Amino acid sequence: MFHRLSTDTLNWILIVGVILFVLEMTFFEGGMIIPALFFALLIYVGRKNLKRFWGKLFFWAGLIGIIFSILNMLAIRFFVIATIAIFVIQYSKSKKVAKWVKPYLNTETAQVEQEDLVRKHPFFDHRFFDDQRTDDVAYQWRDVNIHGAFGDRVIDLSNTVLPNDTAVISIRHLVGNIEIHVPYDVEVSIHHSSVIGRAHIFGNYHDRMMNQTLLYQTKNYDTSFPRVKIIIAIFSGDVEVKRI
């Protein structure tokens, strides 16, 4: 059901949930957070003493209590209502429109030749407000090292001269889309990690990323200059790296 939604829709649901959580913490004296912490303490003490009767009593009382506390949070109620609404909308659409099974073709990028890339696998896998963009006029290059919460980020390298060395772009972001434009004569290394979102890297598509890390580099990255190293860590959003 959720895989049919756009990343922007999921981002808005996430943002509203976070706002409700903050409102509950601010205006309702912690809301159900304090009881949830108390029940979590009961679970911890009970688990340490499960061999005793009162330990079992503490554990199960804490478990039941924390479940009800979580379900009574405003943010959780919103997520439940949003899930039900999405299910009803998707079901209604499926009844009105017959499902066609056919190959997917992105017409906007169908004519883009896929670049010869070498994909590398990471050593480890994950376990479990304002928009910004570079200037449209020529600017002096400086390594990018930014972090943000909400909004889109656009970095265009076509209006600058990269050093005859390794340029670095490091972005840590919570919710939003990231777009990076790279000239054709620049070698690229990309290390991208995402909890929710999609990635389009030089013609290579990853439609639904869930707790994933991608590592790509162009064929001559280790021996040629100029080159740029891109490191992106994002919770929810789409990432596109393309030639320009």
| Low-pLDDT runs | 123-128
What is the strand content?
25-35%
User: Compute the gyration radius: what is it?
Assistant: 23 Å
Inertia-based shape: elongated
Number of strands: 10
Q: Please indicate the count of domains.
A: 2
Biggest β-sheet, characterized? 10 strands, mixed
Number of helices: 4
- SSE succession: HHHHEEEEEEEEEE
Task: Give the termini separation.
Answer: 35 Å
Overall average pLDDT? 80
Q: Specify the oligomeric state.
A: single chain
Structural class: alpha/beta
Helix content: 25-40%
What does this molecule look like?
This protein is α/β, with parallel strands linked by helices and 244 residues long. The chain has two domains: 2-96, no CATH class; 117-243, no CATH class. The chain has four helices and ten strands. It has helices at residues 7-27, 33-48, 53-71, 74-96; strands spanning 117-119, 132-133, 144-150, 153-156, 166-175, 178-182, 187-201, 204-218, 227-236, 239-243. Strand 7 (187-201) and strand 8 (204-218) form a beta hairpin. Residues 123-128 have low confidence and may be disordered. Keywords: Membrane, Transmembrane, Transmembrane helix. Residues 128-241 form the Cell wall-active antibiotics response LiaF-like C-terminal domain.
